[in-house]
Amino acid sequence: MSPVVTALYDSRREADQALQALWAGMSLAHAGVYDRTDTSLQALRALDLTPEERHACEGKLATGNYLLLARARTGENPDDIVELLERMAAEPADEVRMRPPAEEAGAIGDNARVVAEECIPVVEEELRIGTREVVRGGARVRTRVEELPVAEEIELMSESVRVTSRAASRPVSDEELARSGLLRDRVIEIAQVREEAVVSKGVFVREEVVISKTTERRVEEIHETVRRTVIETEDLGGKVLRERGQR
């Protein structure tokens, strides 16, 4: 694949004139004019370019208004594109070129001579359709934490110690006296216990909210008009413009 040739122009008219001259005089695989609009940039990115070529084109568009991009057909010399663009750049932009054309075999007679020629470019608009992403809506989901009062009942146990005395009158045997140590100093402790509530919290998933996005493709028919140059010729007939030999 041959390399691309690019040129920058300040006006769309100059870029279109150069594009028409390329299509008329060269054998091209592709040629087009691109600007900084979203549609044009998307069309530029859709071309079969190397990453280096695409980066260079986008960099040039950042400094110029209109970018002419052309690629010669396989086997053609891309330098011919450069030479043609340089020749056009050297000519005045609005000059109507009046020059004798190269003679073609059988085009004019031996005694005929072309004294002037005006070149009328035949132009035609080309419809370019691209796409861009536009935000049309969406969904926003927020989460917040709220506190709710909760009341629960629980049964608790509590113990109480009571010390009382009661009357008694019975003999104590030697065996019981030795076993129980009634005649020795002793300390007896009885624990008094009660239950207290212990609170802990656990987290459980009760519901799930799912946010999803789907994509669908649709075909939309674009209706637009394009303009082109239509050449109409009219025979004006004989008319005396100037008589020679008279004063």
Task: Report on this structure.
By secondary structure, the chain is of the alpha+beta class. Helices cover 21% and strands 8% of the residues. The protein has five helices and three strands, in the order E-H-E-H-H-E-H-H. The chain has helices at residues 12-25, 38-45, 51-61, 79-90, 174-180; strands at 4-9, 28-34, 66-72. A three-stranded antiparallel sheet has the order 1-3-2, sandwiched between helices. The longest helix has 14 residues, at 12-25. The model is unreliable at 94-108 (pLDDT under 50).
Question: Secondary-structure map with pairings?
Answer:
Layout: E1 4-9, H1 12-25, E2 28-34, H2 38-45, H3 51-61, E3 66-72, H4 79-90, H5 174-180
Helix pairs in contact: 1-4
Q: Uncertain spans, ≥5 residues at pLDDT below 50?
A: 94-108
Range of strand content: 5-15%
Number of strands: 3
Largest sheet: 3 strands, antiparallel
Write a short abstract of this structure:
It contains five helices and three strands; from the N terminus they run βαβααβαα. It is of the alpha+beta class and 247 residues long.
